[in-house]
Amino acid sequence: RQQLLAARDQRVRPGKDDKVLVSWNALMIHSMARGAAILQRSDWLDAACRAANFIRTEMRRDDGRLLHCWRLGEAKLDAYLDDYAYLIHALVSLYEASFDETWIDWAVELAEIVQDHFSDAGGGGFFFTADDHEQLIARNKDMQDASVPSGNAMAATALIRLGKLTGAQACLEAAEGAILAAVDMMQQAPNAMSQMLVACDMLLGPFQEIAILGGNTPTDTAAIIDRRWQTFLPRSVVARRNPASNTTDSKHLSGLFAGKQPADEVQVFVCENFSCQQPVQGREAADALWESLAAPPATD
Fold first, then answer.
1. Angle in degrees, CA 75, 54, 111, rounded to 5
2. Which of 16, 52, 59, 154 is deepest in the core (most CB within 10 A)?
3. What is the pLDDT of residues 229-278, one digit of tens each?
4. Per-residue pLDDT tens for 18-49?
5. Angle 81-209-44 (CA atoms, 0-180°, nearest 5)?
6. Mean pLDDT for the stretch of residues 278-288
7. Do residues 171 and 223 both lie within one domain?
8. Total structural domains within the chain
9. Is 75 in a helix, a strand, or coil?
10. Partners of residue 209 on adjacent β-strands
11. Which CATH number characterizes residue 181's domain?
12. Is the whole-model pTM more than 0.85?
């Protein structure tokens, strides 16, 4: 081993990549948050929250715009579409794992920046750089996935999820524009458009908004949420409010919970486009609901 070390020491050591990127961290935040929800790993959720809070405190300009890269205490470079799209997606997942509505407030803020500064009003979809970025020969609009999903595909996915939670029609229309701009490419090279196909599937639906209103037994609410995460429901978002908590409610979720009154037992509302079915109450009814939602559609 000493001889091997001596031989290696004669070579130039590879550079150490210790920069922090919003986009790559956002991919990890989403994964940690979703894993925490499914496997009930509070330590993973804590790690995801720490990473998101780091971006919020260390990688933003005073006006709320993101900075792409952080290293050795300095954040720099205006963020790209991937940074915003991945982070919005991650914040929705972080909300679904924690039900901390401040994550939704931030996601809405970032979504507005994307629509204001990255949109291609003429052709649909989003440019890789903002309209006030440094002047380039051309503003690229990447549609195909590479080693990571394309910014346009992730923006469409994230905006659909956020729009379904908040009722923001502008988010859904922007997502639809990105998908329509990629239709030809999805038909010609579907293997290169996996994430955009996911977004297209979500947009076509059916897509459920699931609103959970806690009752007087927190353990029942927790059990129902855990059972939901054991059920594969890819075209859905889930929100929860507990009337007994002292948390501040986000105005962006008020539409989903409008008119829903708390009861002694936890209630689960299944909605499509904010049109909600009668709620089911209690753990047994909720278990049956998850099974019915996950069941394949009936065929004639």
1. 85
2. 154
3. 999 999 999 999 987 665 668 899 999 999 998 888 999 999 999 999 99
4. 999 999 999 999 999 999 999 999 999 999 99
5. 60
6. 93
7. no
8. 2
9. strand
10. 237, 271
11. 1.50.10.20
12. yes
